[in-house]
């Protein structure tokens, strides 16, 4: 809480003679004289000064914050070169109003420099609050982040004057941070947000240009506002409180209330309330998903509208329901949040507040054209404070969770329950052994998180959303191999074999071995089904392609096999691609025959490509059972050559091959090299006795 920028807020009020100007907005106060006999002359309207309008707007800002956040949202007011209240003082409006009354409005003889007020505000930000002192005393001083906001209301001369104020605050922060580093009872400022509001009388052309939030330094950002005094300034400060503290607005409509002059009749009134935005999470469902669907269906009538109090904010309208007699047996709620009326002094707001403080509870429903009543909120009081309660509109979180097999109401029933059970088993946490912890470069929890991330990069939750996971026996062990952090040569070969198997299925025009009744496939043709299967398989492999170089080679193999497949389908429409289909099919037959050979036959067959034409009968017999030439599925090497090269690489890693069995042409192994050497130092060349 202490690290939030809203933990500290400081208002700096301009106490210069410029704030003695009239706001040029009239205020009628002799309301009783209106509507009376024509002989009574009403009193003339009054005109407030810029100082009075600014004080009223600031106090309204403070009232809203204190009503909704009574603790840990501290506000201090600085005018002249002194702070009217300290962080350790009890935060209440009465204390601030009394201090403002003591200071009084500015006079024409005052010599006030706004720089002094901003410097004092920076000094106040460096002072720790009671919460920060508690954290510092507990030995956690290094983790205390000192952030805050300064809101300055002034009458500036020009844009250059505003930039000078920004530089003044930036320099003051730098100086006080250096001082705080040498003083124990001060905290350096980690970040400050500065809001400069240029206030002008009504209908006066401002000489200052507003500027959006911009960075002055890494720890200071500034926003320049321009506002007319009076009602506009009041609305602007409430909007700032709305944005600074992430508030939301709810307008309770249709409140039955007796007329003041005629108690026998009643009328419906509206009251706008402010509260934390979390109270609307159930309605908004993040990014207004639920509102959008309700508007499209026409079931909600104007759920979010403009503020009825004229504020530059949006409000959600909720309809008054018949109140309960007491707060007993309240419905299950997901949250309770303090509220405050926008117009606290109006008669409807006062009547609603007194009604709720008497112990009654009011249910609020969403206005709907058709359908059943949807009660989403409730108003009631606890301990003399009024709260708005969020009521879940769907299944209550306190009830038993829905069964996975429920179908009515459009619920999904085809979850991958069995696969998810295996997923949980593979990602179970277990204590790490000390031996593994010593040699590991990562923390165990980090390794666990990385494992979960790898295994869940592509994991459809619903059976009907996937094709490849419904034909797992045909692509195994590709999914289980891809989630590995490293792939060995054997693993890479197994992945390639799974891809080639799918290629063979498509070339033989076999139907997909899945139940396509509930699967979401665009089109019923077999080509479209295979196209979607290839797309999903590519998404799976591509999600793991950056894990290692072996994973990347598997993706390259998939893309090479997929591209010719697409080309063959195009050629097949014109009748010119039938030979390619037969060649791929024959290549698979060749590989099956090769795997059925004995070790002796395989060694003889490996000499096929290098054997002369007068090869022995065994080699000729072996060659006669295979197609010539073998098909190159990837455009580079055949299926058989992939397999034989793999066998050779495995054998080469076991021992150094005998020179006589190497494939280099013309190499002759010299046996008994020293057989014909004489007893002297002279050597006889080999082969010459």
Could you walk me through the main structural features you see in this protein, from its secondary elements to its overall organization?
- Strand 17 and strand 18 form a beta hairpin.
- The longest helix is centred in the last third of the chain and has 26 residues.
- The chain is α/β, with parallel strands linked by helices.
- The protein folds into 3 domains: 230 residues, Rossmann fold, CATH 3.40.50; 144 residues, Ku70, Chain: A, Domain 2 (Beta Barrel), CATH 2.40.290; 237 residues, no CATH class.
Give the topology.
Layout: E1 8-13, E2 22-27, E3 46-49, H1 50-68, E4 74-79, E5 82-83, H2 93-103, H3 114-126, H4 130-137, E6 147-154, H5 159-182, E7 191-200, E8 211-217, E9 220-228, H6 231-244, E10 247-258, E11 266-276, H7 281-284, H8 289-297, E12 304-306, E13 314-320, E14 335-338, E15 340-341, H9 347-357, E16 362-365, E17 375-382, E18 385-390, H10 417-426, H11 434-439, H12 444-455, H13 472-475, H14 478-482, H15 489-507, H16 526-543, H17 549-574, H18 578-595, H19 599-605, H20 617-624, H21 639-654
Parallel strand pairs: 1-4, 1-6, 6-7, 7-9, 10-13
Antiparallel strand pairs: 2-3, 4-5, 8-9, 10-11, 11-15, 12-13, 13-16, 14-18, 16-17, 17-18
Helix pairs in contact: 1-6, 3-5, 15-17, 16-17
């Amino acid at each position: 809480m202490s690290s939030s920028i809203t933990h500290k807020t400081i208002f700096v009020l301009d106490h210069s003679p410029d704030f003695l100007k009239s706001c040029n907005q009239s205020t009628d106060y002799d309301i009783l004289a209106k509507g009376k006999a024509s002989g009574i002359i009403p009193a003339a309207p009054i005109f407030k000064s810029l100082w009075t309008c600014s004080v009223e707007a600031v106090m309204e800002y403070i009232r809203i914050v204190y009503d909704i956040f009574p603790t840990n949202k501290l506000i201090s007011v600085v005018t002249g070169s002194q702070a009217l209240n300290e962080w350790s003082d009890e935060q209440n409006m009465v204390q601030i109003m009394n201090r403002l009354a003591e200071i009084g409005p500015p006079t024409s003889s005052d010599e006030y420099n706004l720089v002094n007020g901003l410097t004092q505000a920076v000094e106040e930000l460096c002072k720790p609050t009671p919460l920060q002192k508690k954290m510092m005393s507990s030995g956690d001083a290094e983790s205390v982040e000192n952030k805050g906001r300064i809101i300055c209301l002034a009458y500036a001369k020009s844009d250059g004057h505003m930039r000078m104020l920004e530089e003044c605050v930036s320099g003051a922060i730098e100086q006080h941070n250096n001082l705080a580093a040498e003083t124990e009872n001060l905290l350096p400022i980690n970040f400050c947000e500065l809001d400069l509001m240029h206030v002008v009388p009504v209908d006066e052309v401002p000489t200052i240009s507003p500027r959006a939030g911009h960075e002055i330094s890494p720890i200071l950002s500034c926003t320049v506002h321009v506002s007319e005094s009076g009602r506009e300034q009041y609305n602007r400060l409430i909007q700032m409180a709305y944005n600074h503290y992430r508030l939301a607005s709810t307008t309770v409509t249709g409140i039955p209330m007796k007329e003041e002059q005629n108690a026998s009749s009643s009328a419906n009134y509206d009251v706008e309330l402010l509260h934390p935005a979390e109270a609307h999470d159930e309605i908004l469902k993040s990014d207004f998903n639920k509102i959008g669907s309700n508007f499209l269906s026409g079931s909600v009538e104007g759920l979010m509208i403009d503020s009825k109090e004229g504020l530059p904010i949006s409000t959600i309208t909720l309809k008054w329901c018949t109140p309960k007699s007491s707060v007993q047996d309240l419905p299950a709620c997901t949250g309770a949040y303090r509220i405050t009326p926008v117009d606290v002094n109006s008669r409807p707001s006062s009547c609603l507040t007194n009604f709720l403080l008497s112990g009654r509870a009011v249910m609020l429903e969403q206005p709907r054209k058709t359908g059943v009543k949807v009660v989403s909120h409730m108003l009631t009081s606890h301990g003399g404070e009024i709260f708005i309660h969020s009521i879940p509109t769907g299944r209550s979180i306190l009830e038993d969770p829905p069964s996975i097999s429920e179908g009515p109401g459009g619920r999904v029933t085809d979850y991958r329950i069995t696969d998810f059970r295996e997923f949980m088993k593979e990602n179970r946490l277990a204590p790490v052994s000390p031996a593994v912890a010593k040699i590991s470069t990562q923390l165990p929890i980090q390794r666990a998180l990385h494992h979960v991330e790898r295994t869940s990069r592509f994991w459809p939750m619903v059976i009907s959303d996937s094709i490849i996971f419904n034909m797992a026996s045909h692509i195994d062990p590709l999914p289980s191999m891809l989630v590995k952090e490293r792939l060995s040569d054997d693993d890479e070969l197994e992945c390639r074999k799974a891809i080639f198997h799918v290629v063979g299925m498509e070339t033989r025009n076999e139907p997909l071995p899945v139940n396509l009744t509930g699967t979401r496939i665009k089109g019923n043709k077999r080509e479209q089904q295979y196209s979607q299967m290839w797309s999903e398989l590519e998404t799976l492999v591509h999600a793991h392609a950056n894990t290692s170089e072996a994973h990347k080679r598997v993706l390259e193999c998939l893309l090479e096999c997929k591209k010719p497949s697409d080309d063959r389908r195009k050629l097949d429409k014109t009748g010119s691609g039938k030979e390619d289909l037969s060649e791929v099919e024959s290549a698979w037959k060749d590989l099956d025959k090769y795997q059925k050979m004995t070790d002796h036959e395989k060694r003889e067959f490996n000499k096929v490509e290098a054997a002369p034409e007068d090869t022995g009968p065994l080699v000729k017999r072996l060659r006669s059972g295979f197609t010539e030439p073998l098909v190159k599925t990837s455009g580079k090497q055949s299926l058989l050559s992939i397999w034989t090269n793999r066998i050779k690489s495995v054998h080469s890693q076991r021992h150094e091959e005998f020179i006589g069995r190497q494939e280099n042409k013309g190499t002759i192994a010299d046996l008994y090299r020293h057989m014909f050497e004489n007893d002297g130092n002279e050597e006889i060349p080999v082969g010459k006795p």
